[in-house]
Amino acid sequence: MVSLPSEGGVERSLLSWLDGVGWETHGLDGGRGAGVLDEAYERSNREVVYWNLLAEQVVALNDNVTEKNVDKFVSSLKRDLDVEHLMDGNRAFHRLLTKGKSFNIQRDDGASDTIYVDLIDHENPENNRFHAVNQFSVSRETTIRPDVTLFVNGIPLVTMELKSVAQDNDWHDAVSDLVAYEEDVPRLFVPGLFNVAADTMELRYGAVGAPREFYEPWNDAPEEFADDNATRQAIKALCNPATLLDLLKHFVFYEQQAGGDAKIVPRYMQYYAVNSILDRVAESEYDRGLIWHTQGSGKSFTMLYAAENLLSRPEVTRNPQVFIIVDTDKLNSQMRDQLANLSLEQWTEAESIDPLQRLIEEGSSQLVLTTIQKFEDVDPGVQGNDEVIVMSDEAHRFMEADLGSRLDAALPDCTHFGFTGTPVREGERHEDRNTFREFSPEGEDYLHRYTVKQGIDDGLILPVYFTLRHEMEWEIDEAGLDEEFEQEFRGMTTDQKREAIRENATARTLAELEPRVDRAVEEIDAHYDDHVAPNDWKGMVVTPSRRSAAMYGERLRQRRGDEEVEVLYTATKDDSDLIEQFHTDSEERDSIVKAFKQESNPKLLVVHNMLLTGFDAPILKTMYLDRNLKNHNLMQAIARTNRPAAGKENGEIVDFQGVFENIDEALDYDAETKAYAARDKDELYDDLVEQIERVMDIFDGIPKDDTQEATYDAVERVSTHPERREFKQQFRRLQNLYEAVAPDGRLVSEGIERDYKWLSRIHVAFKRTTSGEDDPEEEMREKTREIINDHVEIGEIKRDFPTYKLGEEFLEEVEGLDNPGVKASQIAHATREHLHPRENQNPRYKRLSERVTDIVERWHGEQIGDPEAVEALKSVEEEVLKVEKEADEQGMDAAEFAIYTHLTEETPETIESDEQAEAVAEEIVTQFRERVDRDYPGWRTNRQTIAEIERLLLDVLVVENDLGHLIRDNDEFVDAVRDYLVQNDG
C-alpha cells in the first residue's frame, strides 16, 4: 500500500523523535493526541493550560501547597493569562516559570505567610511531566489547531506548525501560520518559550512574538543528538527536556524596543559557546579560551548570555565579578545601550580609570563594562575578587599597543575569554601577534567556533563576490619622466636615487595619482549606476589615505552631486585645502552614518580608517576597495557588505588593489575559514548554460514567442505541482548565476540573454498570477529588471580575472579528496605558507620557493599534468622538512646552518672546505650574540644593529679568516648573512 507524503507524516515523525528524547507523546497512531490529555484532565477547548495536571504537579513540587489550597492558587494563576499585550504577559509569566509565584497560605494558628510556589522544578527536571501532543485545539474569538504542542506540567511552552514540501508548502508558510496564531489567540502564547516552524526538509525556531525574519535554524548538536537527518537532529538537540528547561531558565532576554518589548532566545552557536565557557570556568583546569565566531553571528549577545549565566548560577561559580572589555568608545556605547535595554540586572559601567580601579578593589559580584584603554593606569595587585572572569571583544586587537599587559597586571588572577571573528596568526615567534597563542591553552585552537560557511548556510550573512579592477593600461612618457627626475634629483648618487624611489613610489603614492583616480572614479560611477543603484543599495569607497579619499570625494561629487557623496576621515589643524573641504566633527559623522543606513542620501561613502569595524548597514552592498588589506582587516571589510537585507542576494567588493589576485596571501587562514572559490568566468558561464537549459526544458513543447497563447500555456504549466516548485527553485538559481556572470559578451552572441529575458517575463507573469502581487518586478534584482544587452568593452581596466565568491556552496572538502588537481593546489598552498616567512632564513628555502613557483607555472601552463604536479610538489615539501632535520643532525642552530649552507652551496668557490665554512658560520653567530643588543623592540631594523653586524662580519671574515673577497667580490653576501642572523634571531 502506498501512502502519499503529507503534513501528517511529518507530524508523526516529529512526535516519534520527541518520544525518543523523553517526552510522553500522544498522536503517534495518527489520531488526535491532544484529545487523550483533554479527556484525562477535563480540559475545555477554551483553556490553554491543563489546569488539573498543573495542580497535581504544584502539590507534588511544593511542600506548602496542598489539595486544600491548590484551587485558590490555580485561580490566581489563571488571572496571569488575562493580559492586554502578549509580550507584557509573556515577560511576566516567564518570571513565574523561572522564579515562582508568590502565594499567601494560612498557618494552623490563623496567621498567614507569603511563599513562592514553583511551577517547574528546575533543579530536578525528572520531577516534571513532559507531554508532546498533536492537534491541540483552542477556541477563543477564533479556533486554532497547531500541529504539535509541548507541555511541561500542563503549561504550553512550545508551539509547532509543520508543512510538507510534497504538498508545495514549506517552513515559510508555517511561520506565517504561527504569526497568525499569535494574533488570533495570544492567550496560548503567554506562557510560551518559542515556536517551531518545520517542513519535510528544514526547521526554524523563533521566540514568542518574533517577526518572520527572526526564525532561525538550529544546526548543531552534542554528540548524543547528532544525526544525518538535519530536522531530526534539530528537534532532538533543541527540544529535549534538559535543553528546553535550560533555555527557559537561563537564556531568555527581554529587550526594550520602539513599539514594545521583544523576547530574545539564543542562536545555537551562542548557546553552545556559553555552555563551553561555563564548563571551562567550572572545571578550573584552564584560565582562558577563544570564541571564534564569524562577523554577524551575534558575539555581543553571546557575551551577555555568558555574563548572565555566570552571575546567576552558583553551581558554576559562587561570587564572580565579570568584565566585558571592548577597545573603542563606539563599541562601549553600543554595548551600554544594549545593556540598558535588556532584562539583565547586575551591571555597571566603569566610565574612567578611578571608578574602574575602585570596582576592581571592591570586587563585588556584578557585570562591569569598560574599555581596555582604561586599564592603562590601574594599579597592579589590587584585585579584590578571586573569581574574576574577563571577556574581551574583538580579541584580535586586544594585544595591540601592549594593552593586554596592562589588563594582566590589573587582574592577574582571572579567567580570560577572547571573542573574535577575525583572529590573527601572524607568526610563531613570541613577539608576533597571535590570537590563538594569547587565548588558547596549548593544544587547543579555540574553545568554540562558528565559521563563515555556517553563517552563510544559516542565512545570517551573505556570500560576497569580488571583481578585480586593479590593472590599468597606462600611457607613460618615459623619456620625459626620466628627464624630470634627473633634473629634480641631480645632486643624488645612483644608490640615493634608487632609495628615494623605493621610499616614495608606494601603493599610497600610486593611489593619489590624478590619472589613476580619474579612471577609477569613472569605473565606480558606471558600476554603481549599473549594479548598485537599480535596487537602491549603497556603496562605500575605501581609500589608503586622506588625500586619496578627498580626491575620490571631489570627483564623485562632480559626477553624482554633493548630496549623494560624503567623505569621512579624521581632521588635523594643518590640513591642505583639498583635505580640509571634507572636515567633519564627531556629531556630523554620526549624522552622516545614520542617514547612510536609511534609504535617503548619501548613496556613497568615501572613507579612510573609518567604518571598517563594528559598522552594520545592511543597505551597503558594494565596497570599492582601493586599500591593500589582509587577514583580519580584510575579513572585517568583507563583513561590512555581507549583512542580509530583504531582496539582497550577496555582497560585492570591487578590488582596485589586486588584493584578491593572490587570495591565499591576503587571507592567512585555514581552508574553511577562507571558504573562497576562485572560479574562472568560463566555469560560471558553463554552469549558467546548463542551468538555463534546465529551466527551458520545463517549457518543452511551448513556443518561445510573445503570443498570448505561449505565455498562457507557460504559466499554466508552472502553476501546479510539481512544475510550480521546480520553476521557483530553478529560476532562483538561474538568477544568481546570471548575476555572477554578467557582463559577458557571450550572453548576447550565444542567445543566453534572449532565453533569460523570455524566462524572466514568464516569471513575472507567474508571480503576478499565483501571488496576486501588484508589482512583482520590484523583487527582481538589478540584472533581472534590466537585461544588459552590451556591457563588455575593452577599456583601460583589465577585466578577464576570475570571480571570487565567499562561501561557495559547491566547494569540495580538501581532506581525503581523490582529485589530484585539488591536491596539487592544496600542497602548493601549504608549502608556500611554510616557505614564505622563511625565505630569508636559509638560501635553500628561497630555492625551494622558486621551485614551487616553477612547478605551479608549468602545471597551470599544462606542461605537466595534475598527478605529476602532485608528486613534484610533494618532493619539495619533503625537502623543506629536511632543512630543519639536517641542521639538527649537524648540531647547528638555524642561523649557523643558513650561513654554512650559503658558503657551501651558494659560494663554494670562495672557501677552502666545509670545515672552514662551519667554523666561520659558528664564529659569526657567536660574535652576533655577544655584540648585538637584542633586548629592545625594533632592534632588527635599527641602524646600530645593521652597522654592528657589518663590523663583526669585517672582523670575522677579513681580520680573522682572510676572506675579504667574500665582501669585496659579492655585494649580496653581507645582506644575505644579515638576513640570516636577524630572521633566525641569532
UniProtKB/TrEMBL annotation:
Signal peptide: none annotated. The keyword Hydrolase applies. Pfam families: HSDR_N (PF04313), SWI2_SNF2 (PF18766), T1R_D3-like (PF22679), T1RH-like_C (PF11867). Gene3D superfamilies: 3.90.1570.50, P-loop containing nucleotide triphosphate hydrolases (3.40.50.300). Its EC number is 3.1.21.3. Keywords: ATP-binding, DNA-binding, Endonuclease, Hydrolase, Nuclease, Nucleotide-binding, Restriction system. This is type I site-specific deoxyribonuclease.
